[in-house]
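Q: What would this chain look like folded?
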Amino acid sequence: MSKLLAAGWKSVSLVDVVEHPSFTLWLCGCNLMCPFCHNWRIAERDSKICKWIDIAEILEEVVASRFLVDYLHVTGGEPLMQYSSLRDLLTGAHRAGLMNSLNSNLTLPVKYLAYLVEAGVVDHVATDLKIPPSNLFGLPEKSTLVLWRNYLESLKLIMESETPLELRIPLHKGLTVEVLRKYLGEVLPYISRNETIVVLNQLIGEPFTNPRNPAWCREYCGVGEELVKAIVEALSDVGFKKIVVRSIPGFT
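A: My prediction, written as C-alpha coordinates:
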Protein backbone atom coordinates (compact mmCIF):
# COMPACT_ATOMS: atom_id res chain seq x y z
CA MET A 1 0.00 0.00 0.00
CA SER A 2 1.17 3.57 -0.69
CA LYS A 3 2.44 6.20 1.72
CA LEU A 4 1.40 9.70 2.74
CA LEU A 5 3.59 12.61 3.82
CA ALA A 6 2.06 13.37 7.21
CA ALA A 7 2.79 15.39 10.32
CA GLY A 8 0.83 13.19 12.71
CA TRP A 9 -2.67 12.66 14.02
CA LYS A 10 -4.97 13.03 17.00
CA SER A 11 -6.91 9.88 17.79
CA VAL A 12 -9.94 11.72 19.17
CA SER A 13 -10.67 15.37 18.38
CA LEU A 14 -13.80 17.25 19.41
CA VAL A 15 -13.09 20.46 17.47
CA ASP A 16 -12.43 19.54 13.83
CA VAL A 17 -15.92 18.55 12.62
CA VAL A 18 -18.87 20.44 14.08
CA GLU A 19 -20.95 18.21 16.38
CA HIS A 20 -18.87 15.09 15.63
CA PRO A 21 -15.77 13.51 17.19
CA SER A 22 -13.08 12.70 14.65
CA PHE A 23 -9.76 11.00 14.14
CA THR A 24 -7.80 13.93 12.70
CA LEU A 25 -4.81 13.48 10.40
CA TRP A 26 -2.50 16.27 9.25
CA LEU A 27 -0.98 15.90 5.78
CA CYS A 28 1.98 17.99 4.61
CA GLY A 29 2.30 20.38 1.70
CA CYS A 30 0.12 23.27 0.53
CA ASN A 31 -0.25 25.43 -2.56
CA LEU A 32 -1.15 28.61 -0.63
CA MET A 33 0.94 30.97 1.49
CA CYS A 34 -1.70 32.27 3.88
CA PRO A 35 -0.08 34.85 6.19
CA PHE A 36 -2.13 33.80 9.22
CA CYS A 37 -1.44 30.06 8.86
CA HIS A 38 -0.25 28.48 12.11
CA ASN A 39 0.44 25.14 10.39
CA TRP A 40 2.89 26.74 7.95
CA ARG A 41 5.71 24.35 8.84
CA ILE A 42 3.44 21.47 7.88
CA ALA A 43 2.44 23.34 4.73
CA GLU A 44 6.10 23.84 3.82
CA ARG A 45 6.96 20.16 4.46
CA ASP A 46 9.38 20.78 7.32
CA SER A 47 11.46 17.59 7.48
CA LYS A 48 11.55 17.81 11.28
CA ILE A 49 7.77 17.42 11.35
CA CYS A 50 6.74 15.65 8.14
CA LYS A 51 7.44 11.96 7.55
CA TRP A 52 6.39 9.42 4.92
CA ILE A 53 4.05 7.00 6.69
CA ASP A 54 2.55 3.78 5.34
CA ILE A 55 -1.20 4.06 4.88
CA ALA A 56 -1.53 0.66 6.54
CA GLU A 57 0.04 2.10 9.70
CA ILE A 58 -2.34 5.05 9.69
CA LEU A 59 -5.32 2.76 9.17
CA GLU A 60 -4.28 0.66 12.16
CA GLU A 61 -4.56 3.78 14.32
CA VAL A 62 -7.84 4.79 12.70
CA VAL A 63 -9.35 1.35 13.30
CA ALA A 64 -8.26 1.48 16.95
CA SER A 65 -10.31 4.67 17.39
CA ARG A 66 -13.32 3.79 15.24
CA PHE A 67 -15.68 3.21 18.19
CA LEU A 68 -14.87 6.64 19.64
CA VAL A 69 -15.23 8.81 16.52
CA ASP A 70 -17.62 9.39 13.63
CA TYR A 71 -15.16 10.64 11.03
CA LEU A 72 -11.65 10.31 9.77
CA HIS A 73 -10.91 14.01 9.24
CA VAL A 74 -7.99 14.76 6.92
CA THR A 75 -6.53 18.25 7.05
CA GLY A 76 -3.17 19.89 6.46
CA GLY A 77 -1.59 21.59 4.72
CA GLU A 78 -3.63 20.77 1.65
CA PRO A 79 -4.65 17.08 1.51
CA LEU A 80 -5.57 17.15 -2.19
CA MET A 81 -1.90 17.55 -3.06
CA GLN A 82 -1.71 13.82 -2.24
CA TYR A 83 -5.07 12.95 -3.77
CA SER A 84 -4.11 9.58 -5.26
CA SER A 85 -2.73 8.02 -2.07
CA LEU A 86 -5.40 9.81 -0.07
CA ARG A 87 -8.07 7.82 -1.88
CA ASP A 88 -6.46 4.60 -0.62
CA LEU A 89 -6.66 5.89 2.96
CA LEU A 90 -10.26 7.06 2.65
CA THR A 91 -11.29 3.77 1.06
CA GLY A 92 -9.73 1.91 3.97
CA ALA A 93 -11.53 4.09 6.50
CA HIS A 94 -14.84 3.36 4.80
CA ARG A 95 -14.13 -0.34 5.00
CA ALA A 96 -13.51 0.11 8.73
CA GLY A 97 -16.98 1.66 9.09
CA LEU A 98 -16.02 5.33 9.37
CA MET A 99 -17.19 8.32 7.41
CA ASN A 100 -14.56 10.59 5.85
CA SER A 101 -14.21 14.35 6.23
CA LEU A 102 -11.89 16.37 3.99
CA ASN A 103 -10.61 19.80 4.99
CA SER A 104 -9.41 21.44 1.78
CA ASN A 105 -8.75 24.95 0.52
CA LEU A 106 -10.45 23.78 -2.74
CA THR A 107 -8.12 25.88 -4.91
CA LEU A 108 -6.42 23.06 -6.79
CA PRO A 109 -7.89 22.02 -10.17
CA VAL A 110 -11.29 20.46 -9.55
CA LYS A 111 -10.21 17.12 -11.05
CA TYR A 112 -8.35 16.26 -7.84
CA LEU A 113 -11.45 16.67 -5.71
CA ALA A 114 -13.52 14.88 -8.37
CA TYR A 115 -11.16 11.91 -8.17
CA LEU A 116 -12.25 11.37 -4.57
CA VAL A 117 -15.88 12.44 -4.86
CA GLU A 118 -16.52 10.17 -7.84
CA ALA A 119 -14.98 7.28 -5.91
CA GLY A 120 -17.60 7.86 -3.20
CA VAL A 121 -15.07 8.23 -0.38
CA VAL A 122 -15.86 11.79 0.77
CA ASP A 123 -18.77 12.20 3.20
CA HIS A 124 -18.12 15.75 4.41
CA VAL A 125 -16.07 18.72 3.23
CA ALA A 126 -14.77 21.61 5.32
CA THR A 127 -13.28 24.64 3.61
CA ASP A 128 -12.28 28.19 4.47
CA LEU A 129 -13.89 31.08 2.67
CA LYS A 130 -10.68 33.14 2.61
CA ILE A 131 -11.81 36.60 1.57
CA PRO A 132 -10.59 38.75 0.07
CA PRO A 133 -8.35 36.12 -1.60
CA SER A 134 -5.82 38.77 -2.61
CA ASN A 135 -5.15 39.38 1.08
CA LEU A 136 -5.46 35.88 2.49
CA PHE A 137 -3.98 33.53 -0.14
CA GLY A 138 -0.55 35.12 0.17
CA LEU A 139 0.11 34.81 -3.58
CA PRO A 140 0.43 37.14 -6.60
CA GLU A 141 -2.82 38.53 -7.97
CA LYS A 142 -2.66 36.56 -11.23
CA SER A 143 -2.34 33.25 -9.40
CA THR A 144 -5.04 34.24 -6.92
CA LEU A 145 -7.60 34.80 -9.68
CA VAL A 146 -6.99 31.32 -11.11
CA LEU A 147 -7.22 29.68 -7.69
CA TRP A 148 -10.43 31.54 -6.87
CA ARG A 149 -12.02 30.15 -10.04
CA ASN A 150 -10.92 26.68 -8.97
CA TYR A 151 -12.54 27.30 -5.59
CA LEU A 152 -15.89 28.14 -7.17
CA GLU A 153 -15.74 25.09 -9.45
CA SER A 154 -15.01 22.88 -6.44
CA LEU A 155 -17.97 24.31 -4.51
CA LYS A 156 -20.16 23.53 -7.52
CA LEU A 157 -18.97 19.91 -7.53
CA ILE A 158 -19.66 19.58 -3.81
CA MET A 159 -23.18 20.95 -4.27
CA GLU A 160 -23.92 18.70 -7.23
CA SER A 161 -22.67 15.63 -5.34
CA GLU A 162 -24.82 16.60 -2.31
CA THR A 163 -21.81 16.31 -0.02
CA PRO A 164 -22.37 18.06 3.35
CA LEU A 165 -20.36 21.29 3.56
CA GLU A 166 -18.85 23.12 6.52
CA LEU A 167 -17.95 26.64 5.39
CA ARG A 168 -15.40 28.28 7.66
CA ILE A 169 -14.86 32.02 7.49
CA PRO A 170 -11.64 33.45 8.96
CA LEU A 171 -12.48 36.76 10.65
CA HIS A 172 -9.88 39.53 10.35
CA LYS A 173 -9.83 43.31 10.37
CA GLY A 174 -9.78 43.49 6.59
CA LEU A 175 -13.11 41.68 6.34
CA THR A 176 -16.03 44.08 6.29
CA VAL A 177 -19.69 43.31 5.77
CA GLU A 178 -19.39 44.85 2.31
CA VAL A 179 -16.50 42.53 1.40
CA LEU A 180 -18.44 39.55 2.74
CA ARG A 181 -21.50 40.42 0.66
CA LYS A 182 -19.39 40.85 -2.47
CA TYR A 183 -17.89 37.36 -2.25
CA LEU A 184 -21.10 35.75 -1.03
CA GLY A 185 -22.57 36.90 -4.31
CA GLU A 186 -20.07 34.63 -6.07
CA VAL A 187 -20.31 31.56 -3.84
CA LEU A 188 -24.02 31.42 -2.98
CA PRO A 189 -25.05 29.86 -6.31
CA TYR A 190 -22.97 26.83 -5.28
CA ILE A 191 -24.03 26.48 -1.64
CA SER A 192 -27.15 25.16 0.05
CA ARG A 193 -27.97 27.79 2.64
CA ASN A 194 -30.34 25.50 4.51
CA GLU A 195 -27.84 22.66 4.98
CA THR A 196 -24.42 24.31 5.07
CA ILE A 197 -22.88 24.88 8.50
CA VAL A 198 -21.03 28.21 8.64
CA VAL A 199 -18.22 28.45 11.20
CA LEU A 200 -16.72 31.81 12.10
CA ASN A 201 -13.08 31.55 13.20
CA GLN A 202 -11.50 34.63 14.73
CA LEU A 203 -7.88 34.88 13.60
CA ILE A 204 -5.35 35.34 16.37
CA GLY A 205 -1.61 35.82 16.35
CA GLU A 206 1.23 35.69 18.82
CA PRO A 207 1.57 34.58 21.58
CA PHE A 208 -1.42 32.28 21.15
CA THR A 209 -0.29 30.98 17.75
CA ASN A 210 2.88 31.04 15.67
CA PRO A 211 1.62 32.45 12.35
CA ARG A 212 3.60 32.45 9.11
CA ASN A 213 3.59 36.26 9.05
CA PRO A 214 3.48 37.75 12.57
CA ALA A 215 3.51 41.32 11.21
CA TRP A 216 0.39 40.59 9.14
CA CYS A 217 -1.37 39.19 12.20
CA ARG A 218 -0.43 42.19 14.31
CA GLU A 219 -2.25 44.35 11.76
CA TYR A 220 -5.25 42.16 10.92
CA CYS A 221 -5.87 39.61 13.69
CA GLY A 222 -8.08 40.18 16.71
CA VAL A 223 -11.46 41.45 15.56
CA GLY A 224 -13.98 43.08 17.84
CA GLU A 225 -17.34 41.74 18.99
CA GLU A 226 -19.20 44.28 16.85
CA LEU A 227 -17.74 42.85 13.63
CA VAL A 228 -18.60 39.31 14.69
CA LYS A 229 -22.21 40.32 15.31
CA ALA A 230 -22.39 42.18 11.99
CA ILE A 231 -21.05 39.16 10.08
CA VAL A 232 -23.55 36.84 11.79
CA GLU A 233 -26.39 39.22 10.88
CA ALA A 234 -25.26 39.45 7.26
CA LEU A 235 -25.08 35.66 6.96
CA SER A 236 -28.54 35.29 8.51
CA ASP A 237 -29.92 37.89 6.12
CA VAL A 238 -28.93 35.81 3.08
CA GLY A 239 -30.52 32.67 4.51
CA PHE A 240 -27.89 30.66 6.37
CA LYS A 241 -29.59 28.68 9.15
CA LYS A 242 -26.63 27.14 10.96
CA ILE A 243 -23.94 29.58 12.13
CA VAL A 244 -21.32 28.69 14.72
CA VAL A 245 -18.99 31.26 16.29
CA ARG A 246 -15.83 29.64 17.58
CA SER A 247 -14.86 30.93 21.01
CA ILE A 248 -11.23 31.68 21.83
CA PRO A 249 -9.87 30.81 25.29
CA GLY A 250 -9.00 34.01 27.09
CA PHE A 251 -11.15 36.17 24.79
CA THR A 252 -14.74 37.37 25.14
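The longest strand covers residues 3-17.
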